[in-house]
Amino acid sequence: MSGDQLLPGEEPVPEGTDEAACRETPDVNGAYPRLTEDQIARLTERGQHRSTAPNDVLIQEGERCETFFVVLSGSVAVVEDYGTPEEHVLRVHGPGRFMGELGLLHGQVAFYSAVAREPGQVLVVSVDELRRLVARDATIGDVVLRACLGRRALLVGQGAGFRIIGSRYSPDTRRLREFAIRNRLPHRWIDLETDEEAEGLLRRFGVGPEETPLVIWRDTTLLRNPGNAALARLIGLPALPAAGCHGDVLIVGSGPAGLAAAVYAASEGLSTTVVEALATGGQAGTSSRIENLLGFPSGISGAELTERALLQADKFGARISIPAEATGLRPEDDDHYVVAFADGSRIAARAVVLAVGARYRRLQVPGIERLEGTSVHYSANVYEAQQCRTDPVAVVGGGNSAGQAVLFLAGYAPKVYLLVRGPSLEAHMSRYLIDQVDAHPQVEVMLHTEVTKVVGRQVLEELDVVDNRTGRHRPLAVRGLFVFTGADPHTEWLAGTIALDSRGFVLTGPEALEACARPEVWHGRGRSCMTLEASLPGVFAVGDVRSGSVKRVASAAGEGAMAIHFVHRHLGHSAVPGSMGTPAPVGGSDVSPRIRHKESAWLA
Ligand SMILES: Cc1cc2nc3c(=O)[nH]c(=O)nc-3n(C[C@H](O)[C@H](O)[C@H](O)COP(=O)(O)OP(=O)(O)OC[C@H]3O[C@@H](n4cnc5c(N)ncnc54)[C@H](O)[C@@H]3O)c2cc1C
After folding, report:
1. Quick one: 32 and 120 in the same domain?
2. CA 22, 25, 30: angle at the middle one, nearest 5?
3. How far apart, in whole angstroms, are the C-alpha atoms of residue 511 and residue 499?
4. Which pLDDT value is given to residue 160?
């Protein structure tokens, strides 16, 4: 149906009326599909019909919605700030369309209300039933998942959801924004420094600027400088399971490695908990476009990849808690581990998968900290890029993430300098990126170049760079600096518990066994340390945090999947998934000497 077609019983839009409020919203890239009669019939087997009257509220903004609604007749409006002076219609759905976006499947609260506009009928299906159907019925699953992903992207783009009011110079504003951005939560940032709306809102809520940052939602909820956990609970992101909870496997970190481990563990029947300190997706979630991932010929954004993986893990029953920062790991007598968290809580599991990845290194330049978050960034996403529309920016680094960032930022900024310490890009950047960087008219590559000084008190005004061959300095007038200079593992909390290499990455397999401080933990097990297993039996390390790993999305995800195979072996499951029902070998190493030789070549 085109956007100009009227719904049954609908009148033409009178002159001067808000058209969005009257007509059905046209589909945008599969975000508003119409279910077929056959699909509706399959859903009907699991749901009930319900009559609607005008102004019936089916979904209430700010509340968790447990129901999936399909419009059978009449129409339903999706409204932001329903019942307030700011109320406005985001879209209208007619027969065959359904309500809900990503939050529905993730158990988050609704970011809008859904209100019936006229007498009609809807099909009501519980979200649990919907989840079961999505898992089993490929066509319905595909239509619903694609729509939910598309709708979340549209909501984020529209600045729907909660508001963060705070100064661009406040570290807490930066923290809240980073949490919201990286978790892809619909929100709008109102800058205390430049946004005229800020003053009016502060006055309305009777709050002084010194009490910012604030999180405001629906004119009814106001949080003063909340912690990330408080914001997460407001939105309905799941908290840690109750203390004393015992599971089969606890996965620490939810980048590609952790999410892959979650999908395989949960789909193979293990009770699975994932804990994440900051945001699902890890480093990959900050990538504007991943182009070398098998199966995505035109690339996929890190955000979309993450949402897809999350839905998949969710669908198989993995529980994912955010924010939950693991701070300690301790073996317990009865063959399980206890992981402690920053908020004092603990979780026990029979096996632990460490998928904690790495974080980008800071540039060692005096005064750079004061510009972090305002003009110095360690990732390049659309929010940061939007701040660089008029001014040149610089990217530091010679690897693939620097190359990607340059190309992405060149779509926004008038000029992008790529500052590389070494003599060429070939050493660390993939050929496909080098070719695009070299060919881009807005990009200037500066080799043998290092940043020596940042100029600017609150925002970056200029960089001083030096040619490390000649010692000649040059000023660069840029307003944004994006740093991609290698990464350090997130393993401070593991030092002294498991064997790490000299740079802090987790040793696994034969290397872990060799470096194991307490070899007696392996005695009597009838097996040696397995591939991906750390120096404690039943603790595995996957992805970027593992010593010798390849530092790619695909390899991280592959290792996450593989680790679960070894988790089954550790748990003594006789038929290990993937081994065609063959019992896991016991006694000696899990790999033949020939295979082990190949494996160490790969790890090197
Ligand atoms: C900007 C950018 C672009 C990239 N582009 C590509 C690309 O195009 N192709 C490609 O193959 N690779 C790319 N990479 C590399 C790729 O993203 C990484 O190799 C991959 O994300 C590693 O996955 P991981 O799961 O091992 O770790 P990470 O992605 O680092 O995830 C680790 C997660 O663990 C969490 N965590 C850390 N410590 C704790 C703790 N104590 N408790 C709980 N949680 C914790 C972190 O918050 C994080 O979410 C890119 C990286 C970046 C930064």
Report:
1. yes
2. 170
3. 9
4. 87
Residue bearing tokens 């909870």 = 245
Instruction: Tell the residue number behind the tokens 């072996």, with chain if given.
Output: 569
Say which residue, 310 or 168, is predicted with more confidence.
Answer: 310
Same domain assignment for residues 351 and 389: no
413 HSE (CA, 13 A, CB side): 32
Name the residue of 181, 293, 553, 559 to mutate for ligand 1: max ligand atoms within 8 A of Cβ.
553
Q: How far apart are the first and last CA of the chain?
A: 57
> Using one digit for the tens of pLDDT, what is the confidence trace for 71-108?
999 999 999 989 988 898 999 999 999 999 988 988 89
Burial tier of 427 (Cβ tally within 10 Å: 0-12, 13-18, 19+): exposed
Minimum-distance ligand 1 atom for the alpha carbon of 490: 38
pTM here is 0.82
**Same domain flag for 322 and 429:** no
Range of the domain at 468: 368-485
CA 551 to chain centre: 18
**What is the Cα 54 distance to its own chain's centre?**
38
The residues lining ligand 1, judged by C-beta closer than 6 Å to any ligand atom, are 252-258, 275-279, 282-284, 286-287, 290-292, 325-326, 355-358, 379, 400-401, 404, 490, 493, 543-545, 551-554, 556
Tokens coding 277? 């300190």
* Cα Dmax for the chain: 83
Do 530 and 579 lie in a common domain?
yes
Total structural domains within the chain: 4
